[in-house]
Specification:
Radius of gyration: 21 Å
Largest sheet: none
Structural class: mainly alpha
Order of helices and strands: HHHHHHHHHHHHHH
Number of helices: 14
Distance between the termini: 35 Å
């Protein structure tokens, strides 16, 4: 992405907002309009689907997706560097860094360029640091990485002046350090901890940017729901790729596979728990069905890793997954969600198969699938916000 390439991303967010608006019409409950134009006398705070699609909600969801993806993309870059394997991970991380710079810098081209340059420098040094582990160059490589992380602070503050030095010290630097993959036999659980923290960082950043750009106050519950659902679906896609990678390398009984499987299961529980807040009675059946869906993804990846190019598992169709969500969320239109899930499911299965085969394009395919998770997340959260009249 060039400094002007953010228009494409903003156009994507506008398309999501339009789809969310369509859902608001489809699932609208009877009663008065959800909102009036902000800034007019007597205007009421947005509620329902409108609250989940305002500027701050869009920004928070975008930052959540970008920061959660960055955690796993950084880990993929370091893993490829340590193994000296050809991989698209570096390019995918670079694309993500440019997209994140666009979100942070917004209309300020100079701020976007500074943040992009800082992030790219950190990305390059992540790979170098990973390759240098255990060598005489390790200490120097780590020092240069840490310096680049500190140098990123003024660039981010240039983009987000409302973010105080205390905010930066409390959130940004620990997040950057935490992006180093956890060591030991449970690396994916460690990455999940960092990804959970990234969701909170996205919230803090979105509020600071909203203050700086004088954006209308968000519907906090609706915006948080959308951001959390976006983050969890982003993580689901990334972890499914991680599990497929481990299956391709070490098989079903390896420590890496066990760690990825445990993290993916934990993600499923978190997703179920998020929906259970709104629909407690649906938690058990949804959780059971979603866990079965995750197991089928693993079975598919295992078959591909074993040499079956088509996989051997029964693949869930987009309509089946749409009906799973619609069975929980009252008023969610199955046909619309099916249409938006189709490209996500297709991309995820392609990414999982590529990761299981150890293909160099697996990281790039995962990035495509991750991007396609944002629209279903927006539609589901809009339907919940509309049904429960969340503000």
């Amino acid at each position: 992405m060039t400094p002007g390439g953010g228009h494409e991303r903003r156009a994507g967010f506008a398309a999501v907002a339009a789809l969310v608006g369509a859902v608001a019409v489809l699932v609208a409950c009877s009663g008065p309009p959800a909102t009036q134009p902000s800034g007019q006398p007597g205007a009421r705070p947005a509620v329902g689907a409108a609250a989940s699609s305002g500027p701050v909600a869009e920004l928070q969801a975008g930052l959540t997706s970008a920061l959660v993806e960055r955690v796993y993309a950084t880990a993929a870059v370091r893993s490829a560097a340590r193994g000296d394997r050809p991989s698209s991970a570096g390019g995918s991380l670079d694309e993500g860094s440019l997209a994140l710079a666009d979100l942070l810098g917004g209309p300020d081209a100079d701020a976007r360029e500074r943040v992009a340059a800082g992030l790219r420098r950190v990305d390059q040094l992540q790979a170098r640091d990973a390759r240098a582990a255990g060598s005489p160059e390790a200490s120097r490589a780590r020092s240069e990485l840490e310096l680049a992380q500190r140098d990123l602070v003024p660039a981010v503050r240039r983009a987000v002046p409302a973010w105080t030095p205390g905010d930066v010290g409390e959130r940004l630097l620990p997040d950057l350090v935490g992006q180093l993959p956890a060591s030991g036999e449970a690396p994916y659980e460690g990455l999940r901890i960092v990804a959970t923290r990234a969701r909170e960082t996205a919230r803090v950043l979105a509020l600071a940017i909203a203050e700086q750009r004088r954006l209308a106050a968000p519907g906090p519950r609706a915006a948080a729901l959308r951001a959390d659902l976006t983050g969890l679906l982003t993580e689901h896609v990334q972890l499914s790729g991680g599990l497929a990678t481990e299956l391709g390398r070490g098989g079903r009984l390896s420590a890496g596979t066990a760690s990825a499987r445990a993290a993916l299961d934990a993600n499923a529980r978190a997703l179920t728990g998020l929906l259970a807040v709104a629909y407690p009675a649906a938690a058990e059946p949804f959780g059971r069905a979603w866990s079965a869906h995750v197991s089928r993804i693993e079975a598919h990846a295992a078959e591909v890793a074993a040499g079956n190019p088509l996989g051997g598992a029964s693949r869930d169709t987009p309509e089946q997954i749409a009906r799973l969500f619609a069975g929980t969320v009252q008023g969610l239109p199955v046909d619309r969600l099916t249409a938006e899930l189709s490209p996500l499911v297709e991309a995820q299965l392609q990414a999982v198969a590529g990761a299981a085969r150890g293909g160099p394009q697996a990281a790039a395919d995962l990035r495509v699938a991750t991007a396609r998770a944002t629209v279903p997340a927006a539609l589901v959260s809009a339907a919940i916000a509309e049904h429960l009249r969340l503000g």
